[in-house]
Amino acid sequence: MMDKRLTKVLSAGVFLIALVLPAIALAQDAGTAVVAVAWQVSAAKAIAAGLAMGLSALGAAYAQAKIGSAGAGTLAERPEVAIWVITLQALPEVIVLLGFVSAIMING
Amino acid sequence: MSAQTATKAPTPGRDYGYGNARVRGMRSRLLSARTFDELMTSSDVNKIIQQLIDTEYGPDIETAIIHGRTPAAVDEAFRANMVGTFQKVMGFLNAEAHDLVGTLLGRWDLFNIKSIIRGKHMHLMPEEIEDGLYAVGALSPAELHVLVQLEDIRAVVDTLVTWGSPYAVPLRGALAAYGEGGNLASLELALDKYYSGWAAERLSGRRANVVLARRILGLQVDSINLLTTFRLLKNDLGGISPRIFFLAGGAYVSEDLFNTMSGLSDVDEVLDALKTTPYARQLEAVIATYVEEGSLSVFERALEDYVMRKALDAGRGDPLGVGITIAYLWAKQNEVTNLRIIVKGTAVGMPSDRMRKELIIV
Question: Which of B2, B34, B76, B132 to pair with B156, CA 20 to 30 A apart?
Answer without folding.
Answer: B76
